[in-house]
Amino acid sequence: MGSNFAGKRVAVLGAGKIGGILLKALLEKGLLSPQATVATVQHEERARALAQKLNVPVSTDNAAAVRGADIIFVCVKPQVVQEVIEQIRPNVSKKQLIISVAASVPTSQIEKALGSEVPVVRAMPNTPCVLGCGMTGVCKGKFADASHLETACALFNVVGKTVVVDEKHMDAVTGLSASGPAYIYIILESLAEAGVKVGLPRDIATLLAAQTALGAATVVLETGDHPALLKDAVTTPAGCTIDGILELEEGKLRVTLIKAVVKAAQRAKELANG
Ligand SMILES: NC(=O)c1ccc[n+]([C@@H]2O[C@H](COP(=O)([O-])OP(=O)(O)OC[C@H]3O[C@@H](n4cnc5c(N)ncnc54)[C@H](OP(=O)(O)O)[C@@H]3O)[C@@H](O)[C@H]2O)c1
User: What is the pLDDT of residues 69-110, one digit of tens each?
Assistant: First the structure.
C-alpha cells in the first residue's frame, strides 16, 4: 500500500480523544483530504459537533463509513472493538487496511472477527500526537506485509516518532509510552510544586520544569548517550545535584516508575476483557 496517500479514502471509527487527535492532525498536515475522509462516533450529537468542527462527514454508522475506504482506523475502546468489527465485516475486503489503536486487542482477534485475510496493523500512539510530538509503536498482523507497515508508519510519523515492534511487545509499549505522558505530567507537576516551595512563582516554576524535561529528553534522543552517563555529567562531586539524587533514591523514584510501567503493561493485557 506504501506511503502515497493521494486519493486514498480513510475512515476513522471512534473519533474520540485519540481518534480525534489523529484525524485532526492528518487533515491539518494535508495527508488526508476532507473529501476522502469520514469518521464515526457513538452519539448523534457528538457526530454533528465533530462534523462541524473538522468539516468531514461524521456519522454513527460504522458499516457505511468503511464502504470504499482504503484505510480504516479503529479507535474505539478495547471492549467495543469486537462489536465494531462485526458491524463492518460485510463491507471489508483484503484490499483495505485496518489500523487498530485499541490497547490490549491482538491482531488475531480482529482477523478472526473479520473472517477473511484482511491486513491488520496494530498501533499504540500517545496523546502528545496532538502537537506532532507523539510516540507510536506499531506491529503487523498475519495478513499485513511490509507495505502496510510502511503506510501505518507514514501516517503516524506525521504526529511524532514511530517504532516497529513485535506484537508481543505491544502491552509493554502501552504501559510505557501510551500511559507515559500521565507519569511525566505528574513529575512536572511535582517539580513545579517544588519550585513554588523554594520560592518561585508557579508559572516560572512550571516553565523551568517542563523545559528541563524537554531539554533532557532531547539530549537523550539526539546524542543516544545512556541516561546514566548524562546524569553523571550533571552531578558535581559534593555539589547540589547529588543531594537531590539522594532524596530521589530514598523516595524510591526509580523503583516506583518501574513498578508503574509493569502494572500498566499488565493491565493492558486485560483491557479487552473489560
Ligand atoms: N487516550 C489515549 O492516550 C490512547 C492512546 C493510545 C491508544 N488509545 C486507545 O484508543 C481507543 C480510544 O481511546 P480514547 O481515549 O480515545 O477514548 P474515547 O475518547 O472515549 O473515544 C472513544 C470514541 O469511540 C466512540 N464510540 C464508542 N462506541 C462506538 C461505536 N459503537 N461506534 C463508533 N464509535 C464509537 C465514542 O463516541 P462518542 O464520542 O459519541 O462517545 C468516542 O468518540 C482505546 O482503545 C484506547 O486503548 C488511547
Answer: 999 999 999 999 999 999 999 999 999 999 999 999 999 999
Residue 8, number of CB atoms within 10 A of its CB: 19
Sheet holding 37-40, edge to edge: 58-59, 37-40, 10-13, 71-74, 97-100, 120-124, 134-140, 160-164
Residue length, the chain? 274
Mean pLDDT, residues 60-71: 97
The CA 253 to ligand 1 mean position distance, Å, reads 32
Closest ligand 1 atom number to CA of residue 21: 16
| Residue to substitute in 45, 76, 80 for testing ligand 1 pocket (most ligand atoms within 8 angstroms of CB) | 76
Handedness of CA 47, 152, 155, 219 (dihedral sign): positive
In 49-191, DSSP assigns E strands to 58-59, 71-74, 97-100, 120-124, 134-140, 160-164
Residues with CB under 6 A from ligand 1: 13-19, 40-43, 46, 62, 75-78, 80, 84, 101-103, 124-127, 178
**Global pTM?**
0.94
Is 23:39 a contact under the CB 8 Å cutoff? yes
Domains of the chain in start order, with CATH, are: 10-166 (3.40.50.720), 180-273 (1.10.3730.10)
Q: Counting atoms of ligand 1 from 1, which one is nearest the CA of 75?
A: 11
Which residues touch 74 (CB under 8 Å, ≥6 apart)? 13, 14, 81, 84, 85, 98, 99, 100, 101, 102, 110
For cell 495478513, the residue is 143
Residue 78 CA, closest ligand 1 atom number: 45
